[in-house]
Amino acid sequence: MLSIVPNVVADAERRRKIKKNMSSNQVQPKLIIHGGAGSSLKSKGGLVAVRQSLHTIVKEVYDLLKNQTSAIDAVIRGCQLLEDEPRFNAGTGSVLQSDGQIRMSAALMDGISQRFSGIINVSRTKNPIKLAQALQSESDRVLSDYGAAELLRELKVPIYDPLTDLRLQEWIEERKDNFKKDMAGVIAEDNLPANDAQRGTIGVVALDLEGNLAAGTSTGGKGLERIGRVSDSAMPAGNYATNKAAVSCTGIGEDIIDQCLAPRIVVRVDDGLSLEVAMRRSMKESYDNKRDLGAIAIDATGAIVWGKTSEVLLAAYHDGDRIGDTLEWIEDELIGYCC
């Protein structure tokens, strides 16, 4: 029987090895989260509301990191909070696929153990990231729809309907046009026009006091997609971490997969490039290939870097001193960094 509680013995051994390999000197925790990417938040109310949501979540998760919560546990909590916020397309508030059903995906990667786990096209659950967490200690660590449903039963997770009235109305309106759009008008704020689409994904990247990195990503998909379509969020292409760097991506999933974006950035850091240079080079390649995407990242030195080819990246961060965000970053520059 699987358990939502991590394997205590395995976890204790993993942490013993971490402490043995790490310096006794603690590092400054760092955190960055995102709520998607896309076009401009033209509504001032939208900007204010999204900023408040992101900043509130950053503060809660960063407080955990300051109090010795591990990077992976902080990432799980951050993803859970973002999944619970209806304005973002993950967990509660996920978009509907072409048949009117919600199917969600999520992934988690522990940088120190380099263990990836993911859940694909799961339905009727509140927090897909918790299923990815449960799979971290398993030998079979990525499950799709039927396996995900069986996992829910084994864990005895309560059935939950993540549908909101707003998402249902979006689907009904788009259905009237016989699904002429390639994706749903995913919006981050109630009165934002539907054509101001946000590429709906949430993600969290964290560096803890011991210098460990982790990344998590969760999504409801792009909406209106073919039944069974798999997003980048449940693949290493969209979520990847080592002990050198960690990345969570957002945007058009197929573009992220084609670019193999998250591991591309991380491997470049592993090979000796700075995170800033790795992000800049990867974003330039994405731009040249006409990809629509964004990424957030932290490296082992504590550098926080983000990049985008879309107009807007809905991200917020804590650099150890203050909370900042990227909501009004609409310059042509492909990357940004705070420290």
Structure description:
Strands 1, 2, 3, 4, 5, 6, 7, 12 and 13 form a nine-stranded mixed beta sheet that branches. Strands 8-9-10-11-14 form a five-stranded antiparallel beta sheet. It has a single domain, classed as (Glycosyl)asparaginase (Glutamine Phosphoribosylpyrophosphate, subunit 1, domain 1), CATH 3.60.20. The radius of gyration is 18 Å and the shape is globular. The chain is built from nine helices and 14 strands. The chain has helices at 8-21, 44-66, 71-84, 128-134, 145-155, 165-176, 253-259, 261-270, 275-288, and strands at 30-38, 104-110, 115-122, 142-143, 198-199, 202-207, 213-219, 239-241, 245-251, 293-299, 304-308, 312-318, 323-325, 335-337. It has 339 residues and is an alpha+beta fold. Helix content is 33%, strand content 22%.
Can you summarize this structure?
The protein has about 350 residues and is α+β, with helices and mostly antiparallel strands. The chain has one domain (about 25-335): (Glycosyl)asparaginase (Glutamine Phosphoribosylpyrophosphate, subunit 1, domain 1), CATH 3.60.20.30.
Question: Which tags fit this structure?
Answer:
five-stranded antiparallel β-sheet, 339 residues, nine-stranded mixed β-sheet, Glutamine Phosphoribosylpyrophosphate, subunit 1, domain 1, single chain, 14 strands, globular, alpha+beta
| SSE run | HEHHEEHEHHEEEEEHHHEEEEE
Question: Total helix count?
Answer: 9
What share of the residues lie within helices? 25-40%
User: How many beta strands in the DSSP annotation?
Assistant: 14
Number of domains: 1
Q: Tell me which CATH architecture applies here.
A: 4-Layer Sandwich
**Rounded average pLDDT:** 87
* Beta-strand content bin: 15-25%
Using the alpha-carbon principal axes, give the shape. globular
In quaternary terms, these chains amount to: single chain
Which value, in Å, is the CA radius of gyration?
A: 18 Å
Largest sheet: 9 strands, mixed
- Unreliable stretches (pLDDT < 50, length at least 5) are 1-10, 17-23, 187-198
- The helix-and-strand class reads alpha+beta
The CATH superfamily is: (Glycosyl)asparaginase
CATH fold label:
Glutamine Phosphoribosylpyrophosphate, subunit 1, domain 1
Terminal Cα span:
44 Å
CATH class category name = Alpha Beta
